[in-house]
Automatic annotation (TrEMBL):
Residues 1-29 are annotated as: Disordered. GO terms for cellular component: lysosomal membrane. GO terms for biological process: regulated exocytosis. Its main location: membrane. The keyword Kinase does not apply. It comes from the Bacteria. It is found in: Membrane. Residues 1-16 have a biased composition (Low complexity). The keyword DNA repair does not apply. Keywords: Membrane, Transmembrane, Transmembrane helix. InterPro entries: MAPEG-like_dom_sf, Membr-assoc_MAPEG. PANTHER family: TRANSMEMBRANE PROTEIN 79. This is MAPEG family protein.
Length: 218
């Protein structure tokens, strides 16, 4: 009787789950720098917003009525939009002036350049400078998308006496973007304060507006 050999059964091998690497001294130093910058940014945000709401300077208050508050919010929303436009403009200027970046990262690895031929341009992801600009642009776009709807919700949700917080938040946005830009190449601790001054004012306004909507404050 002819017998056939049974192939050996394969046993599944379990790959060890990679363990989380412990934080090194350098990592902890970076974390402390980030926490310090974020903490300072939060303190500055709360201080200025509370001060504006408490003092309610007449020059920063809109005219009476929800429509006037909404129009004022749209005016202040121009500041974040101008920050976004500034980043786009600076990056466009850099691309125009530098051959290695002029074709854009979308052509990276395609072998195509503006002349329609294979060449050294368009074969990489761009220079170190343009990659930094792209990261700053992406972060700024995210912040603008979050900030402008929050400004509009604040304008129609909160009382007129609280509307002075909007100009403060918009001006902190500009200061934060400048600090974020200047500190970006220095690493996370250098840009933490700029990020915080951009993000925390919007976050505080969003949280307060949500609470106000729930309790019916108007």
């Amino acid at each position: 009787m002819r017998t056939t050999a049974t192939p050996p059964r394969r046993t599944a091998t379990l790959r060890p789950t990679p363990e989380r690497q412990p934080a090194t001294a350098t990592h902890r130093t970076v974390q402390r720098g980030v926490l310090r910058g974020m903490g300072i940014g939060m303190a500055m945000t709360l201080l200025l917003l509370v001060l504006m709401i408490a003092l309610a300077p007449r020059a920063l208050l809109p005219l009476i009525g929800p429509t006037a508050s909404l129009v004022a919010a749209l005016h202040w929303a121009l500041l974040p939009l101008l920050c976004l436009a500034a980043v786009i403009g600076v990056m466009a200027r850099h691309r125009f002036l530098h051959a290695e970046d002029i074709d854009g990262s979308g052509l990276a690895g395609s072998g195509l350049t503006g002349a329609g031929m294979a060449g050294s341009r368009g074969m990489t992801g761009g220079s170190w400078t343009v990659r930094n600009y792209q990261a700053i642009l992406q972060n700024t776009l995210e912040q603008v998308v979050l900030a402008i709807p929050t400004y509009l919700i604040w304008a129609v949700t909160l009382p007129r006496e609280w509307q002075a917080a909007l100009p403060a938040a918009a001006m902190l946005f500009v200061v934060g973007r400048v600090l974020f830009w200047r500190g970006y190449s220095g690493g996370a601790p250098s840009r933490a304060l700029g990020f915080a001054l951009t993000f925390y004012p919007t976050l505080v306004l969003a949280v307060v507006a949500t609470v106000a909507a729930l309790v019916g404050l108007r």
